[in-house]
Amino acid sequence: MPLSLTQIQRAAVRMLEELSEDSLASAVDYIAFLRSIEEREDEEDIACYLERREETTIPLAEVREKLGLS
């Protein structure tokens, strides 16, 4: 059974508490780096959506038919 969010958070806190000051600083820097990547990806996704939201879509059935998958 997968761990709950609370269990994961508690495990992360325990791990962080055991780190040296330098290692903790490095971990915090790395977490900030990962968050910045996620934020940039989210911004790119939103920009892509805004650019293309007026485009028409093709029904999945039509795509399957064109690909010979129906």
Count of DSSP-assigned helices: 3
Could you state the order of secondary-structure elements as H and E?
HHH
The low-confidence runs, each spanning 5 or more residues with pLDDT under 50, are none
Give the count of structural domains. Answer: 1
Task: Categorize the overall geometry.
Answer: elongated
**SSE-based structural type:** mainly alpha
Mean pLDDT: 96
User: Helix coverage percent of residues?
Assistant: over 70%
The rounded distance between the terminal residues' Cα atoms is 37 Å
The portion of residues forming beta strands comes to: under 5%
The major pleated sheet works out as:
none
Q: For the CA atoms, what is the radius of gyration?
A: 22 Å
Beta-strand segment tally: 0
